[in-house]
Amino acid sequence: MPSDSIAKTSGGYGGGDENGSLRNFKLNESTFLASLMPKKEIGADRFIEAHPQYDGRGTIIAIFDSGVDPAASGLQVTSDGKPKVLDVIDCTGSGDIDTSKVVKADANGFIQGASGVSLVVNSSWKNPSGEWHVGYKFLYELLTGTLTFPFEEREKEEHLDEFSQKHSNPEDADLKRVREDLQNRIDLLRKQADSYDDKGPIIDAVVWHDGEFWRAALDTQSLEDDSDCGKLANFVPLTNYRIERKYGVFSKLDACSFVLNVYSDGNILSIVTDSSPHGTHVAGIATAFHPKESLLNGVAPGAQLISCKIGDTRLGSMETGTGLTRALIAAVEHKCDLINMSYGEPTLLPDYGRFIDLVNEVVNKHRLIFVSSAGNSGPALSTVGAPGGTSSSIIGVGAYVSPAMAAGAHCVVEPPAEGLEYTWSSRGPTSDGDLGVSISAPGGAVAPVPTWTLQKRMLMNGTSMASPSACGGIALLISAMKAEGIPVSPYSVRKALENTSVPVGDSPADKLSTGQGLMQVDRAHEYIKQSRNIPCVCYEIKVNQSGKATPTSRGIYLRDASACKQPTEWTVQVQPKFHEGASKLEELVPFEECIELHSTEKTVVRAPEYLLLTNNGRSFNIVVDPTKLSDGLHYYEVYGVDCRAPWRGPIFRIPVTITKPMTVKNQPPVVSFSRMSFLPGHIERRYIEVPLGATWVEATMQTSGFDTTRRFFVDTVQICPLQRPLKWESVVTFSSPTAKSYAFPVVGGQTMELAVAQFWSSGIGSHETTIVDFEIVNFAPAANLNKIRVPYRPIDAKLSTLTESRDKLPSGRQTLALTLTYKFKLEDGAEVKPQVPLLNNRIYDTKFESQFYMISDTNKRVYAMGDVYPNAAKLPKGEYNLQLYLRHDNVQYLEKMKQLVLFIERNLDDKEIIRLNFFSEPDGPVMGNGAFKSSVLVPGKKEAIYLGPPVKDKLPKNAPQGSMLLGAISYGKLSFAGQEGGKSPQKNPVSYQITYVVPPNKVDEDKGKSSSTSSKTVSERLEEEVRDAKMRVISSLKQDTDEERSEWKKLSASLKSEYPNYTPLLAKILEGLLSQSNVEDKIRHHEEVIDGANEVIDSIDKDEVAKFFSLKSDPEDEEAENMKKKMVTTRDQLAEALYQKGLALMEIESLKGEKEAETEETKDLFEDNFKELQKWVDTKSSKYGTLLVVRERRRGRLGAALKALNEMMQDNGDPPKKKLYELKLSLLDEIGWDHFTTYEKQWMLLRFPPSLPLF
User: Fold this and answer.
1) What are phi and psi of 800, to 5 degrees?
2) Which of 164, 663, 706, 815 has CA 20 to 30 A from 863's CA?
């Protein structure tokens, strides 16, 4: 996700006078404006003043973000008049429209749009082929915020009042029905207003080829108040942005800019909008150019950029693997010099994954410089995010705030005396010991934002802002290098930045927060010029403990108590790495460097003195002795210096981080840290070895000795193998001296860091006492099962090659896509979450490029979308398809995924939750004795308990065998919890997942036994079997052609003569008549249906059926139960025949026309049939309600018809039927509610889309 926060006060670390130290200063207008877009801190202003032509000219930056608005202030042109934004791309596909449907215009220039509206094509548009590709999109799917178009309730209650005045006491039945109908209409309008759910206007899109380029136009009439605005014919056609660099604006109402790009030979139109202001703000920091406000320029106003949108609008601006990969492809295709990515996530494996592999290729082969934010999860250590803080090929940037920024941009009353790192800026090291943060840059700015925000610029802060500040500074360096003929290399640029940065803070451990320090553009430029003849090499560091081949790390990180009890020896492999394509004879063979090795503290870290390094690399050993160190944080480095060019500074570094924890010896285990003194931005770190067996901490923080309000960050972090850092955090504000208690989970036996930081801009200084108590709580176990997870295998797997250029990797390999389809059914509405354990919760640390899913019903209506972080979605009862979309360029990997198991997880209702029982004996669950309630544990004591399985009759319905019930178990409750605390394990600070696999159902012992002795002879049973077989045959026959229908009629007539008045047969024949399609003589067909229905009706003894249902049968009497089943079937066949007869009468009336149809005979036939149906079934039910709607409509009671139709659709648990909604539209049209009709037509496209959306 984006690494920023909007208009939120924040902070960071300091440096020397050049980086903004201001002890006693006052802002004037120019220094205030300069503080809004900080450049002095990194020396960018000095550099441009000395070199005006090196302001980023000749450089192109790819902005991997939420999208850049090309209409935003400062993003039109560069300082030398060139276009600022070279391309705008939606790499996620969230704005893609399927435009594969092709239509042709009629003689009047009209075409049928994909939404169903008629569109006029501008006659001046060139289209040699005459083919128009059409598609549509709901506007809200493109916008970041929802615009509300209020529902216009045009029908007023005056209609009812007027009727009441005219008929003050209506006794006439007809008048009563009229009044009731008016009341129904008013009720419907009120209900519609209350339940109004605006899905936004529909945009119709048209794509065509003008003989030179693909062009597109939009019809946006539904967005405008004026019906003459937004017409398709008035739209100025756009082609792909990179060709003509033009954009559009949807309407004056939204002021939202968009770009159009056409792909796949006109079959896909991408409407590109930004998914948040974040990307435009980032681009403005790096490159904005304001000719009349130079102080508000970005760092590199001469640089150009391409916008690569990686934040998927469908996922709330979350990045996706598809977006990341396509962005890299675009950056290489556009020959970009730099990439800025202000996005990131936590990771369980640093420097690992599919995206990292592609980044390494882009950096090492194509020489792009990749800059990214370190993250905003500080102040605890090991909180850097991926990819910026965890990847060797990426320059990870921390966030710094200067006194001028604090006073100006943040409006702090008393700014800090020196610059510092923002409190929330993520810290290193990574879990494998790498420093994590490379350099720091200003982490806040007032920069341009999209026009739809209705303001020119906005304050944001975060490492998201620090990254483009650094990226802009690097653009200045590249501009200079190109102008001066110096080869551009990510290796040499990074070395220059790190070795010329100004240290921030006085402690060696501050490097874990700030990296090598605050970057300085002018110093880095001098370094680059001096080292122009030095080979472009980076130094890959691999470290492993001596005697162990694995694991391999990039530094040394001693964190646990056991690692600090004795010296350890480590093997370091240094491997020079040249760019791909480097000359073996001219670069690799001659490479040889004499390296002098240094340790920042020889009493702790010992290393050899010298090393001769060649192209093949060299290893050496170092010894780390932490035994004499005090508890706490210690940071050291082993670094190598070129003996022949010591001015180069360290050419490689091996970070050594030691967090020596204190051991908790007292019983019960309580730890206190007293009189910790805080100033703004100050951080206190404590490291504790969590006692074995402890599962959570109860901590108390007590403050004293201050006057004004204080704000603190309280973080804890533990690192466990192959897991993301286990982090707990709290931001707490103290308005007066007081104490606050917390509880958070821990892992026993692992070191825990407790980081307490006073927020950088909070208070002037105080002394607080923080007490942290570790307590062992009462042993009172609780367990329940509250979720069910059902496994599914795909019913279909389609593997395809993505042929578009945006899916062709820089290496030339084409991306492949695997679409897996799963089918599942919900018997009741439920909130479900799809789970793919192999793939979920990993974006950067996975070898698969992308995953995306969508859940749709049988009408293709999409209810939910998601990616690696699946969200719960509420679905109504019905059948659903889930399509899972996976991408990779290796077909073998995708082939292995064709039978991938997916789980559908849903929460159990409160009444379905199973609370499990505990026992003190192993046979307790079977014998029913030895129940366990609670016990008091003393330190060191162990106690065993036995958990009983759920009782079979407590298992939830619709839990097939093999599905899993999930829940949690906890072993205690908070000491400060109330009486109810601990009963629900999920409410305790620590709980552990438990699962129960639903076993197979018991074998039905009675299965296969005859229920009763048959009284029928063998010949009678044989005759019945033959009859039933013939009925199965006639049911299976197709009737697609005239010949097939003729054969079916012959067989029907034969069977009717052979088995006269046999109701099941006649019902089957009626079903066959109803299944016929493409019938030319429709009136004759409906007459045949009526005849078939009459045959069914006449074959049934209605008196016998009525008599049976007037009596109660004995459920214990098997023969009576069998008779009941037979009678229920007969009644249903009668009702179905009456229902189909009524529908056929209605259809004939409609086909013959009103004149001929409106006869008393026809009315009587329909009415008599309906009244007969009412005797047997509830005509308001969803199964038969259509006939009731038709009846009310025939009687002119349109309000009653609509009410009945709505109730019928609500009662029906199946997916909505299109015919019912079409009937609703016709009723609304007949009433004249145009506004209501328009609303329902929009929903028709949502409920019944022609196809699924594109991935």
Assistant:
1) -140, 155
2) 815
Average pLDDT value over all residues in the chain: 86
Dump pLDDT digits (tens) for 367-417. 999 999 999 999 999 999 999 999 999 999 999 999 999 999 998 888 888
Per-residue confidence band for 19, with pLDDT thresholds at 50, 70 and 90: very low
How far is 317 from 722, CA to CA, in rounded Å? 27
Share of the chain above pLDDT 90, in %: 51
1071 sits in which H/E element: helix 1063-1075
- How far apart (Å, rounded) are the C-alpha atoms in residues 764 and 246? 52
In single-letter form, the type of residue at position 652 comes to F
**CA atoms 858, 863, 867, 870: torsion sign:** negative
Residues 6+ apart with CB under 8 A from 1004: none
Sorted by sequence, the CB contacts under 8 Å of residue 1164 that are 6+ apart come out as none
DSSP 8-state assignment for residue 1: -
CA torsion sign, 1196 to 1202 to 1205 to 1207?
negative
| Averaged pLDDT for residues 692-717 | 83
pLDDT tens digits, residue range 38-84?
Answer: 999 999 999 999 999 999 999 999 999 999 999 999 999 999 999 99
**Count of alpha carbons within 13 angstroms of residue 102, beta-carbon side:** 9
pLDDT for residue 22: 40
**Residue corresponding to tokens 């803070």:** 505
Could you tell me which of 541, 620, 543 has the C-alpha nearest to residue 575? 541
Amino acid at 305: L
3-state percent breakdown (helix, strand, coil) of the chain, nearest 5: 30, 25, 40
- 156 pLDDT band, cuts 50/70/90, is very low
Distance, in Å, from the CA atom of 1052 to the CA atom of 1002, rounded to the nearest integer, reads: 44
CB 346: neighbour CB atoms within 10 A? 21
Biggest CA-to-CA distance, the chain: 113
Work out the angle at residue 1097's Cα, subtended by the Cα atoms of residues 1096 and 1100, and round it to the nearest 5 degrees: 90
Report pTM: 0.87
CA distance 408 to 33: 8
Cβ proximity of 71 and 258 under 8 Å: no
Contact (CB, 8 A) for 622 and 607: yes
Per DSSP, the residues of 343-380 read B-B--SSTT-SHHHHHHHHHHHHH--EEEEE--S--SS
Is-contact 469 293, C-beta < 8 A? no
CA 991 – CA 983 distance, rounded (Å): 12
Q: How far is it, in rounded angstroms, from Cα 909 to Cα 915? A: 13
Per-residue pLDDT tens digits for 434-486: 999 999 999 999 999 999 998 999 999 999 999 999 999 999 999 999 999 99
Long-range contacts of 1213-1220 (CB under 8 A, 24+ apart): 1213/876, 1213/877, 1213/878, 1214/877, 1214/878, 1215/857, 1215/858, 1215/859, 1215/861, 1215/878, 1215/879, 1216/859, 1216/1247, 1216/1248, 1218/859, 1218/1244, 1218/1247, 1218/1248, 1220/1186
Residue 219 Cα distances to 59, 108, 138, 1235, angstroms: 37, 18, 12, 19
